[in-house]
Amino acid sequence: MSVLSEPAPPPLPPPDRLYQRIDQCAGAPYPLSEYIRRALWELVQATLIRWSPRRAHGWRRFWLRAFGAKLQDTSTTKSTTKIRHPWLLEVGEWSTIAEDVDVYNLGWIRIGNHTTISQRCWLCAGTHDYTRFELPLIRPSIVVGDGVWVCAGAFLGPGVTVGHNAIVGARAVVTKDVAESTIVAGNPAKVVKTRPWPGDAGKTPSAAPQAAERTH
Q1: Among 62, 74, 118, 188, whose CB has the most other CB atoms within 10 angstroms?
Q2: Count of domains observed in the chain
Q3: 61: domain CATH number?
């Protein structure tokens, strides 16, 4: 039985004007030394880190620190965590960047203490100025606070700050700051509720420190 192919669609008529000119984009926006350092890191990441055992956290910390990352002794990454510029990464105590997370840190990414970045998240600290023909590179930072859970497959956009104790739902697309102790979800991400104090959903997060003091 033969299969008939649809004919190719006709091209669009040319626009009156172009809003971006790729031929005017910078071919090499970084200095040569930066490309050399990136090439060395990519080699290490593709071999010494990619094939490391699952629990070889110290081994991966060693190589990340050798390339300038600021990691605490209890912070962890996985063998399939993809980090573009380790020298622009800071991870706090007891925080984890899980499998297949893409840390696209053209700008600084800072992750606080006791925070989890779950599988297949994308942290995108880089974009272009679309208001200019040559689309110059912009490298805004991303800051993730303490006690944050970024659930699987979520996207954090350039310049975003996620406040302490917030939760970003699975597959959420975050393009604006997330307030402390809130839960956001969806595309674009919106607040769905306030995160309750663990063990007592009736207490607000602001009351939690006082409750903790009474128990010690």
Answers
A1: 118
A2: 1
A3: 2.160.10.10
For the stretch 47-89, pLDDT in tens is: 999 999 999 999 999 999 999 999 999 999 999 999 999 999 9
Would you state the torsion angle of the CA atoms of residues 84, 128, 157, 78, taken in this order, to the nearest 10 degrees? Answer: -10
| Residue at 204 is within a domain | no
Show Cβ contacts of residue 75 under 8 Å, excluding neighbours closer than 6 positions: 61, 91, 92, 93, 94, 95, 96
- Distance between CA atoms of residues 194 and 179, nearest Å: 10
**What's this model's pTM, rounded to 2 decimal places?**
0.87
Query: Tell me: the pLDDT tens digits for 180-205?
Result: 999 999 999 999 999 999 876 555 55
Helix (H) or strand (E) holding 71, with range, is strand 70-71
